[in-house]
Every structure is written in C-alpha cells, then in structure tokens.
Amino acid sequence: MTSDAPRGRLLPMLCADGPWQMALDQMLLEQTDPRPVLRFYRWSGAWLSLGRHQRQWPDHWRDLAAEGHLSIVRRPSGGQAVLHAGGLTYALIWPGAPRQRRQAYREACHWLIEGFRSLGDELRFGDEAATGEDANCFARSTVADLVDGRGIKRIGSAQRWQRGRLLQHGEILLDPPADLWRAVFRETTPAPAAAAIPRQGLEQHLFLALQRQWPELGWSEQPLTTVERQELERRVSVSAACIDSTT
C-alpha cells in the first residue's frame, strides 16, 4: 500500500445524547473526506430515534417523553423508529458505495455477519417487504436487516445518500429493556442476544471483521479534530432549539 492510498478511519467509542450523536453522523456524512469512516456508540439514557421521513407515530410516545421515560430525536437516515437502550449503534460512512440499494446493504452488512459468525452466532438477511405501516423499525425484517438463528431481528439498518456518500446506521439489539420496550411499542420484547455475544467489547470483534473485509484500507483509529469538535458543538447548539418542533 502506498502512502497516498485511501485509509479507513475508526472513531473512538462515544457515549452521548441523541442530538450530539445524530449531529456527528450528519457532519461526517457531509464531509468531503474520501475515506470510509466507522464509529460505534452508545446513548446516554434511553432514546427513541425517528427516521428522517417518518411523519406518523403513536401519541403515547410524546407522553412517555414528557414523563421522562425516554427522549426523542430525529435521525439523518431513513426507516422507522428505533429504541436505543441496552444495545450498540454503529454508523458507517462509505464514499462511492454501490448505488443499487440491495447491493449496498449486502456489502455494508457483510462484516457484521462475519463478526457475529466468529462469535458463534449466524445471522442472515431478512426477507420481508419494507412498508411504512409499522412505526417500529424492529417490527419486520427486510433485506436491510439481519436476523439471528431464532428468527429475531438482531441488527436493523437504515441508509442516507448525500453527494455520492452513503451513511448506514445500524442498531445491534443486545439486551432490550422489557418494560420500556412494551411501553413504547406495545408488543412482546425481543429476546436478548445469545450469551456468546459480548456486551462489552463487541465493537472490537466487529471492527476486526471489517478489517478482514477491507484489508486494503489500512484502518486506523483517529479521534475528532479540534475543528471537527468545534463544528459539532455549533451544530448541536443550533439544533437544540429545534428538538421540540422536530419531534
């Protein structure tokens, strides 16, 4: 590999609130950096993220937010609502990804399949049709999603394209909180991930799988620069005043 060859960028694990996490992913998508970027993150508190074009959701979600059971934020990616609690989220920014939607999902998820397989858990793509009928992202398993051997949707993904760059969001369902899940979606809570799946350090296993898939990129960890952090803080401060109207 030559010194000017493209290199993949891994951002350090981050635990932060919804506006901060979503503003960061939007900022990374808008950059002109030719490198693919991957980051894993967790959420401070329970958050419900709404898809970029999601305009309908149950009234009781606002009640749950007003009562302090969760907070609501809008994602820059599509799809339906995702409850972020007890799981692990990833964001992959991929310049020059395949423009055919099914192919992009398959190539952008292969490393996840391999990562779970290395831990003894086989995942497969879902086969249900995508519709806007369910407000809950995990209510059905489409070609964008990965299902475990028990038939449970284990990873749900959503995309956003901008100027030839792909943002793929994914939520890895590990230990969904039973009471909150039932309160939000009014349905049975999915079973936890297999015991063989580590709750701490899972991102390291998955990152190794990504490196095996794209070895030519020479992935390396690089935190946010001072300029990036300043821009992120600006975006969060601007969006804070709009959260109520957005949700």
Rg (CA only): 17 Å
Number of strands: 12
The top-level CATH class is Alpha Beta
Nearest-integer average pLDDT: 90
Tell me about the biggest sheet? 9 strands, mixed
What is the CATH architecture annotation? 2-Layer Sandwich
Shape summary? globular
CATH topology: BirA Bifunctional Protein, domain 2
Share of residues in strands: 15-25%
Uncertain stretches of 5 or more adjacent residues: none
- Multimerization state: single chain
Would you identify the CATH H-level superfamily? Bira Bifunctional Protein, Domain 2
Q: For the terminal residues, how far apart are their CA atoms?
A: 47 Å
Number of domains: 1
Helical run tally: 7
Class by SSE composition: alpha/beta
Q: Please write the string of helix (H) and strand (E) elements.
A: EEHEEHEEEHEEEEHHEHH
Helix content: 25-40%
Provide a concise account of the structure shown:
This protein is α/β, with parallel strands linked by helices and 247 residues long. The chain has helices at residues 18-30, 59-66, 101-117, 178-185, 202-213, 226-240, 243-246; strands spanning 9-10, 14-16, 37-43, 47-50, 71-74, 82-84, 88-95, 124-125, 146-147, 153-162, 165-172, 220-221. It has a single domain (9-246), classed as BirA Bifunctional Protein, domain 2, CATH 3.30.930.10.
Please describe what this structure looks like:
This protein is an alpha/beta fold. The chain has a single domain, classed as BirA Bifunctional Protein, domain 2, CATH 3.30.930. The protein is built from seven helices and twelve strands. Strands 1, 2, 3, 7, 8, 9, 10, 11 and 12 form a nine-stranded mixed sheet that branches. Strands 5-4-6 form a three-stranded mixed sheet, sandwiched between helices. Strand 4, helix 2 (59-66) and strand 5 (71-74) form a beta-alpha-beta unit. Helix 1 (18-30) crosses helix 6 and helix 3 packs across helix 5.
